[in-house]
Each structure stands twice: as C-alpha cells, then as structure tokens.
Specification:
Radius of gyration: 28 Å
Shape: elongated
Keywords: Leucine-rich repeat, Repeat
Structural class: alpha/beta
InterPro entries: LRR_dom_sf (IPR032675)
Helix content: 10-25%
CATH class of one domain: Alpha Beta
C-alpha cells in the first residue's frame, strides 16, 4: 500500500500490466494520466475506495476520458461502488474491456430494484442476480469475476435486465419515462434484440392484447409461487405467502430454486417445487350411484342419469379441487409435476405457457 490517491506524472509507454491495489484512489478520473499508455492491457485497482468515475459527480463539465483500446482486463473488486451508473459508464471509458472483476462492492448488497417495482421484499441481490445484471449492462465483456460468460448467460441476463426495466416503467407514470430510460443506456439496443418489454401501468388495467412471442413478455413465464400450508397452519386459513415473478424461459431450475429460497427465506435443499398443472389424469373407478351402474332400470331412467352434472369435486380442504369425479364413476386427479434439480431450462417445461402456479413444499 503506497497511499496513492492520484497519478499526475507520465509513466513509461511500455507498461502492459499495472497494479495499483490497496491505495487511496476514490475516482477513475484521478488516474486519467494512464490513458496515455498505448499498450496497457491489465489494470488492477483492487482494494481502493473508488465509488465514481469523476471526483465531483455533480460536475457535468468535467472532461471525458478514455483508456487505450488495448486495456482489456480490469480488477475493481473491494472498492466502494454503490451505483449502477458506474457500471453503465465503463463501456465509454474502457472501449476494449473484455474481462472485469467487480465483486465485493456495496452495490451488490442492495436489492435488484425497489419493492414498488418488483412487488417483492427488498433483500440483497443474489450472486446470480448480480452476475446477470452486471453482464447485461456490458455488451462486450466475456469474463466476469473469473466466470466465462456463455451465450446462454448473456441471453438470461439481458432478458432479466430488460424485464426489470419494464417493471420500473410500469411502476412509474409515463411522464417519468424520459428520466428512467437514460439510466439504462442499453435499453434501445436490448429492445431491438429481444423486443420491447410489456409496459402495463395501473391506468392500463383492463386492457388486453395478444403477446408477441418474440417480445420480452413472450420469452418470460409468469410464475406464482406459494408456500404450501403445513401442519402448523391454522385449519381453514387461506394461503399465507404468494409471490408473482416473471422469469426468462432460458433460466434453469437451479436458479429458480435460488430465487425461491430468497423470496421465502428458505434454506437451499429444504424444499421442493411442485407445478400444479391444469390437466387431469384418471386415478380409479368409483361408483357415484351405488349399485345403479349395474341395475336393470329402464333406458329412459339411464338416459336421465346421463344428463346429470358432469363433474364434481371431492371435498378436500387441504388441496381444494385436486380430485374430480366425472359421471360414470371415473375419478380424476389433477396432475402435479415436481421440478427436480437440474440444468434444464424453464422453457423445457413451460415452452407453451404464459403462466404457471408452483407450490413451494418444505421437505420434512
């Protein structure tokens, strides 16, 4: 640690790798002298106190600067970054950036968005959320925190980010749109790539329309997660907790479980996810009318019985409308599918679905 807070003298043009770790640098503009290094490839600013691009964030007249396109790897871990605006600025400052390390910054202790935007409790973002929302803002990087970014990672992250922008716009008056969109420099680019997110403000309720399958909404499944009633629940009490969440079809089940773990405050591996489908499977033969199915009553009586109510449901307070009995004695049970731990994507299960209801069932 050399207590360096700024660099004001020229350095050798032959430098390819430079480490300025654990110093007192607070803004990238404090080391703008480094833009003169023509072949600089790696820069480590790890363990400083950097929180902004410019020393005075309010000074709009401060001269922009840009590092050499050869600078492709940057380490910003363990600094004081608290705003996404810092991440948004990196492509202009480092046009050649391919690899970024930025873990352990206060930014990632924040929620992904305000509760009024997501309709879920404000909790620190998960590692997966931090990964997706960072790479989605940086189109050129191929490595983040030592993890190689796959094509699927990029699609997941960009769709998730775009859906959050849509939620932010939906939660705000239309007059605020011109103030919100500049906070997301890649918005237009992502809209061109995936289609615009569905913006549904409270004033739009009641309006309906067909979802374009190529739009963001068409690439998401709206999940309703609810916590299964347990033996500790008061009998007859309605479902306690429920969360709705739009999830890209390209996310896998492991990531869905990580999200559910955060939503309900459950430990990993202590619950399973049960998809309650709308399909019915035959279970067994039962007799609605006692011996009548075997009786020799006249044909007119039999025909009259056939016109009775087609479906009825067994009384099952714990699982309402889970068993159905059709006229003729056939018992049907609603099909349930466990979403087992796997790398299978959401689209494998729900490719043709817009929404799904998932029961979160603690493992006893």
């Amino acid at each position: 640690m050399n207590q360096i807070s700024t660099i004001s003298v020229p350095l050798s043009n032959s430098i390819r790798s430079l480490t300025l770790e654990h110093n007192e640098i607070v803004a990238l503009s404090s080391i703008r002298e480094l833009i003169s290094l023509p072949i600089l490839e790696y820069l480590s600013l790890r363990g400083n106190n950097i929180s902004s691009v410019f020393l005075n964030c309010e000074d709009k007249d401060e001269t922009p600067f840009q590092f050499s396109p050869t600078l492709s790897s940057l380490d910003m871990a363990y600094n004081s970054i608290t705003s996404w605006s810092f991440i948004n600025a990196l492509p202009n400052i480092l046009p050649g950036l391919l690899s970024l390390r930025i873990s352990n910054n206060p930014l990632y202790d924040q929620p992904v968005a305000l509760s009024k935007t997501t309709n879920i409790p404000e909790k620190p973002m998960t590692v997966d959320e931090a990964f997706m929302l960072t790479l989605a803002r940086l189109a050129s990087i191929n490595t983040l925190n030592y993890s190689k970014i796959s094509k699927q990672d990029r699609t997941n992250g960009e769709l998730y980010y775009l859906s959050l922008i849509g939620k932010e716009l939906s939660a705000s008056p239309q007059s605020e749109e011109t103030h919100i969109i500049p906070n997301h420099p890649r918005y237009k680019e992502l809209c061109d790539k995936y289609g615009e997110p569905t913006i549904k403000r409270s004033t739009d309720e009641g309006k309906s329309g067909t979802i374009n399958p190529r739009s963001v909404a068409g690439r998401l499944v709206m999940f309703t997660f609810y916590l299964s009633p347990t033996s500790d629940c008061v009998e007859g009490l309605e479902i306690k907790k429920e969360h709705k969440y739009g999830i890209p079809k390209t996310l896998d089940i492991y990531r869905i479980k990580a999200l559910v773990s955060r939503l309900f405050g459950l430990l990993p591996l202590t619950f399973k996810l049960i998809w309650e489908t709308e399909e019915w499977d035959p279970e067994e033969q039962v007799h609605l009318f006692g011996d009548e199915w075997d009786s020799s009553g006249d044909e007119e009586t039999k025909n009259a019985k056939a016109t009775r109510k087609t479906d009825c449901f067994e009384n099952n307070p714990g699982n309402p409308q889970k068993i159905m009995i059709r006229d003729g004695g056939n018992k049907f049970i609603k099909r349930e599918v466990e979403l087992v731990d796997s790398t299978r994507q959401v689209g494998f299960w729900f490719d043709n679905f817009k929404e799904a209801r998932i029961r979160v069932e603690p493992i006893v």
